Amino acid sequence: MSKPRILSGIQTTGNLHLGNYLGAIRNWVEMQSDHECFLFMADLHAVTVPHDPAVLAENTFKVAATYIACGIDPAQSTIFIQSQLPEHSELAWLFNCVTPLGWLERMIQFKEKAVKQGDNVSIGLMDYPVLQAADILLYEPDSVPVGEDQKQHLELTRDIAARVNFQFGSEEKPVLKIPEPLIRKAGARVMSLTDGTKKMSKSDPSDQSRIDLTDDPQAITKKIKRAKTDPARGLEFDNPERPECNNLLSLYQLLSNQSKEAVAAECKEMGWGQFKPLLAETTVEALRPIQEKYHDLMSDRAYLNQVLADGKTKAQAIAAPTLAKVKAAMGFVQ
Ligand code: AMP
Ligand code: TRP
Asked: Which residue ranges make up the annotated binding site for L-tryptophan?
């Protein structure tokens, strides 16, 4: 029997942070031995907000190197660049013509990002989830492992697939396979270090709010030392009045690979002065091997280029027939 297939991606905007690692990449690594994995760099999504052409390509290599440094094995998984497969943009166009505008106007991420862009909101920003639906449905995955913030986009993807099937397929012969979202509870929402009610994000103007996977030990220690806390004594999970406490404990739990119960017991009596150095050291040690591998990979461009060329070929072998199937169902000249 063939392995279940998963597909996921990360935008190539800025450096990846602990949220990307714990909410997404780490889950892919765990799944890769018993799943067929398609993992890509969403560089077409990166240009939905104003971008700097001088760093776009470099950011794409950085994300690819991060996947591999975190444990994605190019011999097992397919790693590719979204913009190198025209199938993504072409299927997005076809989906544009079946997706009601009202569905996109409801997207929370669009509304949040549009406010930040002011007068400069592109059609691309609104269309972002339609491209994401194309990214996903081209590969007919069984499930899509992402962080909590992507839930609405995955629901939209399912709605678009169902609509295409309804309009151009039949019940016995659906055009597209409808995938399941896969959102793990642990790590699905890593919060900002400066505000435990906001998610850790690449777009937060404050560098202090996130730990980038490439931060050096001094930077990590300083950020954790300055992280927002509260005056209550003792540390605990899941107290809604203590979002920062829950977030920092969860980071410690995930990065030290312990159970929640073990961490709750270990930290019950601790104060911040004792806990923060422990979290800082744990984070530095967890990221050290990833950073070493990352720097090696970034200095071996020939190897990265080879991985991405192989990935493109393997991805296209799946994406091209799916696109052809949709075009045929919609009635285009064969
Ligand atoms: P992005 O950086 O927005 O392209 O996100 C890439 C992946 O990381 C997606 O699966 C997101 O859901 C996940 N992700 C981003 N930020 C966080 C966060 N703060 N906590 C958990 N997962 C996140
Ligand atoms: N929108 C996703 C994010 O911000 C990135 C993404 C683009 C994606 N296309 C995708 C994730 C397809 C999963 C599947 O995280």
From this structure: 135
Closest Cα to atom 15 of ligand 1: 20
Please indicate, yes or no, whether residues 277 and 325 belong to a single structural domain of this protein: no
Instruction: Please tell me the distance between residue 47's alpha carbon and the centre of ligand 2 in angstroms.
Output: 13
Structural tokens at position 156: 């939209």
Domain span including residue 246: 207-296
Residues 184-209 have a mean pLDDT of 92
> How many angstroms does the Cα of residue 266 sit away from the middle of ligand 2?
36
The structure's pTM equals 0.95
Which residue shows structure tokens 């601790």? 270
Full DSSP string of 173-206? S-SS--PEEE--STTS-PBPSS-TTSB--TT-S-
Shared domain check, 234 and 170:
no
Catalytic residue, from 177, 202, 260, 327: name it. 202
262: left (phi over 0), alpha (psi -120 to 50) or beta: alpha
Q: For residue 62, what is the domain's CATH number?
A: 3.40.50.620
pLDDT digit string (tens) for 7-57? 999 999 988 999 999 999 999 999 999 999 999 999 999 999 999 999 999
CA of 250 to the centre of ligand 2 (A): 24
Q: Assess whether 259 and 308 both reside in one domain.
A: no
Please indicate, yes or no, whether residues 130 and 239 belong to a single structural domain of this protein.
Answer: no
* DSSP one-letter string for 34-64: TSEEEEEEEHHHHTTS---HHHHHHHHHHHH
Query: Which CATH number covers residue 285?
Result: 1.10.240.10
